[in-house]
Amino acid sequence: MPVLFWLIASFLALSAAPAAAQVADLRSTTQFRVCADPANAPMSMRDGSGFENRLAEAFGQWLGLPVAYTWFPLGAGFITRTLRAGECDVVMGYAQGDELVQNTNHYYTSVFGIVTRRDSDLASVDRLTDPALKDRPIGVIAGSPPATIMAQVGLAKDMRGADLFVDRRVKDPVGDLIAGVKDGTLDAAVLWGPLAGPRVKDDPDLQFTPLLKETQGPRMFYRITMGVRLPEQEWKRELNSLIRRHQDEIDAILRDAGVPLVDDYGKELIQ
């Protein structure tokens, strides 16, 4: 979550500093200015290869504006040093409900899931309460919602945790967990869909199974929005209008990237 867990990664970039006094409207009228992490694969990347980069380019086209980035690593101070400082005007991929920003309407909903080898005896597992997960090394991001459920159902000793809040210009915790599944060091990894789905989409050895059947603990699905400054109602409404009018095109970009999309209640995949 962000982030709840930035998430969720991308997602909740926490800010440790107090907000400065805000000007009513700081947004640029000549550029679509995006606040982003330069190494948050597969979401945002300095080279433009992330799916949030592709979405930003699409929004720029719909607005008739060129895209410009303010790059800053996700973590403490992200919102204060970027959006609230007036350096940029929108944060892509922001989990709904955080108080540091004003959320637009959500433009997709995704879900946590399990990455396994296709030939593994765990390939059919679709819930964290499955007894087959017992006594198996399972990767998970520390502090994420599924880590809480795994601890509740007795999988704590089997968890191999990784920290999402690192400088991803030099470390790649999600990539390391997926590599562990691929080489057999881990039997599975429980990860946020937008972080894992695109990475395994074209891998013949790996699969991502959404966790759509969990009935206890934190929910496994989250609605993803854009974050804008709190006072900027008109800007939020303009982005909401674009989301509403271009939802099919947004969905197509996300599906092409391999992001698992679910309905707003996290009950079923949207094909």
UniProtKB/TrEMBL annotation:
Signal peptide: 1-21
Domain Solute-binding protein family 3/N-terminal, residue spans: 31-257
Keyword hit for Signal: yes
Source organism superkingdom: Bacteria
This protein's UniProt keywords: Signal
Pfam family for this entry, one: SBP_bac_3
Keyword set includes Signal: yes
NCBIfam families noted in UniProt: ABC_peri_MoxJ_2 (TIGR03871)
Protein's name according to its UniProt entry: Quinoprotein dehydrogenase-associated putative ABC transporter substrate-binding protein
